[in-house]
Amino acid sequence: MNVPETIAGIAAGATAGEVIFPTTTEMAIKVQRLLGDPDCSADELIRLVQADPLLATRVVAVANSVLYNRSGQDAANIKSAVSRLGFKTLRVLAAAVVVRQMESMAQTAEHRTMARQLWERTAHVAALAQLIARRVTGQDPDTAFFAGIVHEVGSFYLIARGGDFPGLLEGTDGSLSAWDDGGNAEVGRAVLQQLKVPGAVMEAVESLWAGYLAIPPVSLGDTLLLACQLAPVESPLARLAGSAREGTRVQIDVALDQATLSSILQESEDEVASLIGALYA
Fold first, then answer.
1. How does pLDDT run across 168-193, given as a tens digit for each residue?
2. C-alpha separations of 62 from 37, 42, 88, 117 in Å
3. Contacts of 258 (CB under 8 A, 6+ apart)
4. Long-range pairs for 182-187 at CB < 8 Å and ≥24 separation?
5. pLDDT confidence of residue 119
6. Distance CA 142, CA 21 (A)
7. Which of 150, 112, 117, 187 is nearest to 29 (CA)?
């Protein structure tokens, strides 16, 4: 198999609009589009969220997470959950449902296992990105959260298509090196465009693919890079791609002083766990 050509073909199909999402994501995509309408009303949005059990469950779960439920009073319905979260966070959750449901597109048990691991990593990165935005880079936390949710969408799509190309995801270490050599960016860019991801988020993910971390970290891209480096779960494609994490510890040590790093990883442990639990359930 010519892996670079195969990946290029998958990217070309996605660019041409041939991305097929699971039927269960249709409502989440409708919510995303409605949130992009400046005339969107809260009542209309609530009706749409209520029509999808999966999205409704996620909305209430995140509204009652440690990060958003400062009062300790649980939101018991969609209206109060939407009011607490706001439209920006709802857009993030709609994207989370779309990404999570891409897991169901995997065609083999092995590929579904890979997709589940990738989702777990995604949840960690999203939660950490939000915390880093608040405590280090000064970026909008909700936008950072959104970037964390969608940053691996190309990998999800590659896993979903893996069954159509036997051997693509069953190779040895480094057999998928073309993924790190531009394939991830090529496929990811195509799928993100189909999802109509905002320009700021697209730029941040592009920075992640470029791999350049500014010192001190200040941008949304820096936020995403640090979150990816701190995430305890590795991408299931990393071994196949031959991805190396050498220098990661050095980058973190230069970008964050030990006190700040300890604060993020220890003092915010409950917030991260709560968000991951709400998104991953």
1. 888 777 888 888 888 889 989 988 88
2. 23, 18, 13, 21
3. none
4. 183/4, 183/7, 183/8, 183/11, 183/158, 184/154, 184/155, 184/209, 184/241, 185/154, 185/209, 186/7, 186/8, 186/11, 186/154, 187/7, 187/10, 187/11, 187/14, 187/154, 187/157, 187/158
5. 87
6. 24
7. 150
* Per-residue DSSP letter, 182: I
CA 87 to chain centre: 18
CATH number of the domain bearing residue 39: 1.10.3210.10
Number of domains in the chain: 1
Counting Cα atoms < 13 Å in the Cβ hemisphere of 44 gives: 11
The amino acid at 99: V
Tokens 């958003």 — which residue?
A: 68
- At 218, list the tokens: 């200040």
pLDDT tens for each residue of 219-244: 999 999 999 988 888 999 988 887 75
Residue range 233-273, pLDDT digits in tens: 899 998 888 775 555 666 677 777 777 777 777 766 777 77
pLDDT reported for residue 245: 58
Domain that holds residue 113: 3-280
